[in-house]
Amino acid sequence: MATKHEFIAHLCSPTKLERDRGLQELQRSLEMVSPDSLRDIETEIEKLLKEEDTKWEIKHGALMGTKALLSQDTCSRDFTERAQTHALKLLEDVESRVRIAAGEVMGALCTRNGPSVYAATKGAILEGVRVNLERQPHSEAPEETEKLMEKLAGTSPPKLERRSSTDAAHIFHDTAGWKSLETWMKCLQAVIEGCGAGFNPFIDQALLDLVFHALDHTNRFVRETGYYVCATLVSCGIVEKGAPINEDNAIYRHGDQFSQYLAKGLADNWSQVRLAASVATRRFLENVTSEEVRVQFYPALLPTMCLNRYYVAEGVRIYSQDSWKQVMGGEGKHLVEAYINDVVECYISQTQADNHAVREAACACIAELGSKVDKEVVRPFVRDLLDALLVCFRDDSWPVRDAACVACGNFVLCFPEESRSSMDSLYPLFYENLQDNIPSVRQGAALALANVARAYGQDAVKIIIEKVKEGLLGVEKQAANTEKYSGLDKSPATFGVVKKARDNDMELHTNQPMYSCGSLAPKMRRGSRDGGCMDHKFKRPAEPWELGEGCVHVVAELAQVDGLSQEVSQLLPLVAKTASYQHYTQHVHLLEAVCHELPNIAKGIGKRAFKMNVESFFDAVFYSLSCENALTSNEASQCLSSLGAFLGPNILRGRVEQYNPRYLQQLESTQFGPR
Q1: Are 200 and 237 spatial neighbours (Cβ–Cβ below 8 Å)?
Q2: pTM for this structure?
Q3: Residue 380: how many CA atoms within 13 Å on its side-chain side?
């Protein structure tokens, strides 16, 4: 076991690893220390706290040691009183880690001595929060502030104009530090946690106004901490499940205010704030054990909780899904139906959010309404929901366009009569996505068009097949080589927007403003009802092969529609002819799609119809098998294996041998293998 001098030396170390080791040594020593030795340790720790001009690492280690001492029942009363004085003083230290440790000491004091500690320090803590909330950051070190704002905006401060959320002043306020405000808030949170249910009498309107002021703060770190404070506050009124909530309960008295601010946090533009608000919301609803009381908060909270289950940030999405299951149980669907007006209003408003990830989630949720919720409940809102999706169809962000496309297809399938009047607007948008620069968007458009065919039968099938024929025939006109800047990077696009190949030019990245994280990048424009189909700032004109590939996906999706096997069979010779064109660079990508979809087409139209056309694809498939593109070659191998399993290995081998015996060696080198 380490001696007193050893762990004190470690607590004062300039390295965090050594300070953590010193804390562990102190905790082990306290398990078997005598009362006299404990007093000696208290004296040594207090000496470190008293020193004025000491390094921050020593203060930090001393506060860590103080917190450990306060956990001991035999800790002296005098030490706890002096520790309180020193902790309050260090809450204004210039080093944030010292301030956070001081707040944790205040929390440990409340755990030890109860709410009386907060009663004695309430004025200082709340004043610390209030003063820092009201301070003007520009008034301190104005020269440094102006330089930072100039760097953020790429211009001098007098030229700045508040036109968008990327302006320097907004960026500075939203992301820069806010002196001691965040750490004072963390101190308040630690104190509330330490007091537990005993803090309930101290929850008054003055305290809530201060906390809610932080939730409205322009700085995201302050808002995040504020919601974690809220999560701690709502835990003060915990009652046993099924027990009645009395009027003295803070949640009952201030529940309406909590629910409104929690709803605002659930819709915050920053993912970290959404997560903090999600934590607070789950605790809030779990602590309101009475369903009769809980239902009054559902109109504000339920819609955004439901939407966040599809939010792009994984932490928010997974936590929201767990919250939905824990809080709603198996009644989520029925609750959405019960509050459908609030849910629809929320979804439509979120399709107009500045954050493209929110718009994408809103489209996914609208699609869910059409497929999972009682159709009679959703039917009155179909027109408004389709209008919102039409706007998202013209979004700058391709994931939003994709989600809107799939959602529209679902709505057409579920509500064909209500959607019929929108088809004149939807067909051009479906076709536009069918030739989008992003492969997954083309696949989504094919799925949507198949749903249109299911909804409207032969009337729609004729229209779609004409477009498919046009797209497949157009591949012949594909230019052999594209211009320098006509292509796009096929990798996933940053911020959900297509990355142009020309962006790799060094000239475009020299002496330009830098942005940190996606949230500081220039905002992507939402769609509009007035814009045309090509109103996409980040898109280039489609290549014929892209439309051709999209049409291949449409053929595969139509093969899964009942009653269309004859129409699909008639398209297969044209698909095979399209796959035979190899005069352009990107032909391997189209071949990859053909090899991927061929087994799906075969299963959709049946063995008999497919056997009549299988030989016409052999040249394309075996060419793909031997090409240098690994993805295309792998798809060809998988294609042959799947066709062998579907048609029968001997039948496929016989057809290949009859068509071209030289292909047998390649066939046997695949997973299909010799039999």
Answers
A1: yes
A2: 0.76
A3: 6
